[in-house]
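question for whoever is on the cluster today: can someone run the full assembly for these? two chains, 494 residues total. i dont have access anymore since they changed the login thing
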Amino acid sequence: MTESAREFDPETAHPMVKEVMERSQQNLLACYQCRRCAAGCPVGEETGYITPDRLIRMIILGDRENALNNQLVWRCVSCYTCGTRCPNDIQTARITDTIKKIAKEAHLDPLKPKVAHFHDTFVNSGIRWGRLNEMEFMSFFELKNTLKDLKRMKFKAIYDELMSKTKLGLRMARRKRMHMGFQSAKGRGEIKRLYKKTKKKTV
Amino acid sequence: MDIGYYPGCTLHASSSLYDVQSRRIFNEVGINLKEIEDWNCCGATSAGKVDDFLAVAMPARNIGIAEADGFSEIVIPCSACYSRTLVVQKRLEDDPLLKNQINTELAKKIQGTIKVSSILEVLLTTVASGELAEKVSQKLKGLKPACYYGCMQTRFPYKVPVPDDVENPQGMETVLKVLGAQSLDWNYKTDCCGASAAVNDEEAALNLMTRIMKDAVARGANCFVVTCPMCQLNMDSYQDKICQKHEIKERLPVYFITEMVGLAMGVSVEELQIDRHFVDGSELLKELNII
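^ ran it for u. tokens below:
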């Protein structure tokens, strides 16, 4: 469970909420727990008791452990319903995005490794060639998942994943929805150079 | 009239039918979609989860290219690409320092003055001018579409001007009315299909798609109409799976709005590539004597 406000410790709470507010550019302190976000969250049923308002509360209380590792952060589908309906314009999807990055920097194992792999692989593929090649991207993504499952000896999971993705692949191929060609952007170096520059600055 | 065009990766790959259709139907109303040169991936929603700077830099380069190519407007049919590009344009307008920083490496510098339009916005201008109505040769009588907007057409992670009603958009309904189809009122038009969760968190995504499907069926819809290639692929390719699991007898074709416009203009199913759907798209059209 989350920590109680009675155990609030400003020493630990302030750095956490400050970091999240700065990086997400969202004013978490404006949340007055009306729970309009919770009512509209489409994955509310999948995230246990954690809805956007709960996540914001955890961060304000400095409950770092639970804030960095919960179902909402990893199952948020970025539909932006919470932020669109929030009377104080707090976009929680940008908070869950920020938390994902903080958790990665802290070398925490993501609760949903497939979600983390997906986004990492997507961006890597997009940057590598300047354009996303669906087949290349999906191959890397599946490879990463398989390796992770192999390490944990989850053979049944590997089999199920292979079967379901092969089935989907075949159905896509039959409808010519599988793209075998290759696409790239010649100027992709511009983005790579910019990215390198910013990395140097922050390190 | 020439207008800048950003197809995005998907329209050059699994949803290339949407690319073909978009070019074809706009050509019909005298709008020439000119693909901007050497565009790159917009980063979609993934970039924001991995690196804040990349999430801005990736779409930013495309804005610079479109402006340098001399366009005053760019149309982006894919909802995710549209959302990312619109958001980044506004972010750079609000943060000139960031804009300058990005411009240092770009061969084609960003001004930030171009109009970023969704496919609906451009279609609606042809509705307003009457040009679309002039081209309609085949009314889509009998179609009862559930217009499905998904997330990215009306909800944004940043304050941008939204061209339609956020909770109850009417853009597709307005276009379809000109084509002779009466859209239905329903509850899930702006709900999420799960997008990439279909691949990385299937259980969550299938639950979302089930709710959307059930409501459309309960309202008596006989098809979906969408603008987003992700919504199209998800609702189309996973429909059998969710319907079998929840004992839903109906199957609803998931049409792109461009397919509706094309059919009403008399363009053939083959040319529009409607045969590339998972749920058969031709059967219903034959039943209703549209083709």
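summary bc i know u wont read the tokens: The mean pLDDT of chain A is 93. The first helix of chain A runs from residue 10 to 24.
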